[in-house]
Structure formats: C-alpha cells, structure tokens
Write a structure and sequence with these properties.
Layout (H helix, E strand, L loop, with lengths): L8 E6 L22 E7 L20 E4 L5 E5 L2 E7 L3 E5 L17
Antiparallel strand pairs: 1-2, 1-5, 2-3, 3-6, 4-5
C-alpha cells in the first residue's frame, strides 16, 4: 500500500527501541521506553505559504530522525507501525545514520 502525506507532513517508520542496556541486561517489553527514532519513508509537498507558493521541506525520504514521545499520530499499515506528523514536530535529523534501507544483514567489510 502506498501512503502519500499532504502539506508539511511526513510519514515515519518507527525503529525498534533498544532491547539491552549498556551493561548487557535484556529489558522486558514493559520496561522499554517508547521509541523516539524513525526513518522518513514519505514526505509531503510542503505547506502553502501566505504568498500561495509551497514552502520547501527540510526532510527527505531515508532520513533517520528523532521526534517527541507523544508527537504525531500513530498508525498501523500492513502490520507495521508508522507515525504521521508535521515536519515541525521532528526534533532532529541524525546525520550519517542509515538504518533499514542502507544496512544489509551479514555484510562483511574487507580491509
């Protein structure tokens, strides 16, 4: 299914919260914090400004972002969790971070 946000909204696929602590303890589902990271999978065309033109969007598809715990609207599509929120609700973009689309399992690096 395709989803296309309107105006200045973005669709974010939620990335799973860490399951272990820095010390190696495994956390049960009830102790995990609500995820606050995600990958932008769709971006709207931009908000219409007072002059009638659309403002440019800062975020692009594939960006890894951090958002507030209670920001946006939670939706489930095809069994996956997503958030739809205004671009202004996104707190930060993680530079140099590529999660799901850029990382391949089992890939080794030769030196």
């Amino acid at each position: 299914m395709k989803i296309r946000p309107i105006d200045d909204r973005v669709v974010i696929q939620i990335l799973e919260a860490e399951e272990t602590t820095a010390g190696g303890l495994v956390l049960p589902d009830t102790a995990k914090e609500k995820p606050q990271r995600g990958e932008v999978i769709a971006v709207g065309p931009g908000k219409i400004q007072k002059n009638g033109k659309r403002g440019p969007m800062e975020l692009t598809k594939g960006d890894i972002v951090i958002f507030g715990k209670y920001a946006g609207s939670d939706v489930k599509i095809d069994g996956k969790d997503f958030k739809i929120m205004r671009e202004s609700e996104v707190l930060a973009r993680l530079e140099g971070a590529k999660e799901s689309s850029g990382k391949k399992a089992g890939k080794t690096v030769k030196r």
